[in-house]
Amino acid sequence: MATLKPIESLTPAQAKREYRRLAEMIAAYDKAYYQEDAPKVSDAEYDALRHRYEAIEAAFPEFGGPDSLTKQVGAAPSEKFAKIVHRVPMLSLGNIFSDEEVGEFVARVRRFLGLATDAPLAISAEPKIDGLSCSLRYENGHLVQAATRGDGYTGEDVTANVRTIQEIPHRLRGDAPEILEVRGEVYMTHADFAALNERQMAADKAVFANPRNAAAGSLRQLDASITATRPLHFFAYAWGEASREPAETQMGMVEAFKSYGLPVNPLMKLCHSAEELIAHYHAIEAQRALLPYDIDGVVYKVDSIALQKRLGFVSRAPRWATAHKFPAEKAITLLRDIEIQVGRTGALTPVARLEPITVGGVVVSNATLHNEDEIARKDIRIGDMVTIQRAGDVIPQVLGPVLDKRPAGATPYVFPHTCPVCGSAAIREIDPKTGTEDVVRRCTGGLVCPAQVIERLKHFVSRNAFDIEGLGEKQIAQFYADGLIKTAADIFTLQERDAKSLKRLKDREGYGETSARNLFEAIEARRRIALNRFIFALGIRHVGETNARRAARAFGTFEAFRTIASKAAEGSDERAELTNVEGFGPVVAEAIADFFAEPHNQQVLDALLQHVTPEPMEAIATASPVAGKTIVFTGALEHMTRDEAKAQAERLGAKVAGSVSKKTDLVVAGPGAGSKLTKAAELGIETISEEDWLKLSGS
Questions:
Q1: For the chain, which has fewer Cβ within 10 Å, the N-terminal or C-terminal residue?
Q2: Model pLDDT for residues 612-636, shown as the tens digit of each residue
Q3: Hey, which bits of 15-171 come out as E strands?
């Protein structure tokens, strides 16, 4: 990212092209990381891409609202465990990477809250533990439940396993709240990790790649007696549901945890300026190699809980906290080959095949090369020695070639103009509105291309979509090749067709009576599915988990969503209704309209809906008077910033829209309100003042 042009020097056309390129890349990486457990880039590269993407959005708001590809959390919980719905979502953190960004974070918090530059603002700083997030629920002081993060909304029930961790008390000391969900990180020390791998090798079992993998694998054992033999540890640093908060600050809450008998990190410190935060970051960085456990950065949190509540959340992360990540690790290795993979939308993605090398204790052999422009820009050639960068337990990025080690005869890489799977032409589309060429080259074979069909089916059954246990990528590819599954609807007729087949599934290699029965039962269990998962499974461009959730909330039923989307021609009222969904904007609305305008997609839906029933999402868990209502804020607000007002409305279960329509339930108008207020009057929509809003919201 360092060689990219400064955003302020980009023309609108250049910015839009890069914006779309980043959206494609982030979507692909999210799918690989969250749905397939097969990350393709380093944490550092992913974070840099998302940071650049968000910066372009901020500089060019006319591109529309955020398309949410960078706002997903975690991965769906495994069907092997019972599920626990988090009463308060377990969201992830935004990231920053430089000392300058620390000052920007502090300034951003001040702007949101309307605080003067000299107003006091305390912020805590603590090591970011590289482990597995876990939530512990205590009722009347007793540990009654423990869950992993999962997808941020639903986690895996690991209560029995957590009870084997000696540092976690089964009963809290002192005057703990009646209900308290303590959140923190399960981890393994370096010494315990080394000893565990020695035992694994002695028993001729697979060794773990790093302490984080070892901790995660140990906690997620189906047999808790195995977890009991693993030396796991825990640090408490946050909370979810609480019947009362025993302190008014972040530091105070952590001190309360300590008094209850929970382990907390001693390196946590309260700071009062960006300079103090930076100094503590570098102090922890200097100790990093000497600590007995892995950390990958420092987390900053606004100390006042009252201010945390005012700041609220964006869809992916809290506004009041961020993670300052440590620099990535680098190494040099040989680029043996460049392989082209074809995705479900036909995108041709180049993958670097590397001479295996250990970076940060992990052997890496693959890296993504993004697209042909990136290869040309970096002038990467097969046979080059290349510099790779890794941060976290993922495949690294290729930074570029080591030119003085380039072998004689190495030739520039020529990106293929035909699909390597089906032989169809692979083109870079031209945006009819801007005249710019798409950065991604795509196969034109469509459903003729097996790779695209297979990838779409893989997406359909992925973890955050239908999540059918026993029907993963390997089985999809195998069943497609054998002609058993060609469309999504075929999945739900598999058992019926199998009963009539001469070659039954139970007789196939790798299967038996039990495994075949388990697969059919898993398929049956998915005949009813949450609406947001169903929409996500359709694979509509720019509709990731967050936007699928937004669509489900906005329209309630699939019939309503399909009706609007099918009529959403450009310039229509239905297109305006799609665009008006908070967070969609014209790019997402156009993608949805295009999907439903394709006759083949409608045919696929008709066939699928004969077997599957999408169900409305769970009702918003709040009794507030604005829950479920669509609210528009207009004019100047005097008691809070516009962002703060929107965040407050969303916390109360309301939907915030950017413009007034017949779907709007309430308009909050401050001084200077103009056309939106006029339209609200024309439509007869209730309008209230900011003071009335404060009373209504209980502020």
A1: N
A2: 999 987 655 456 788 878 899 988 8
A3: 83-85, 95-96, 123-129, 132-139, 142-148, 154-156
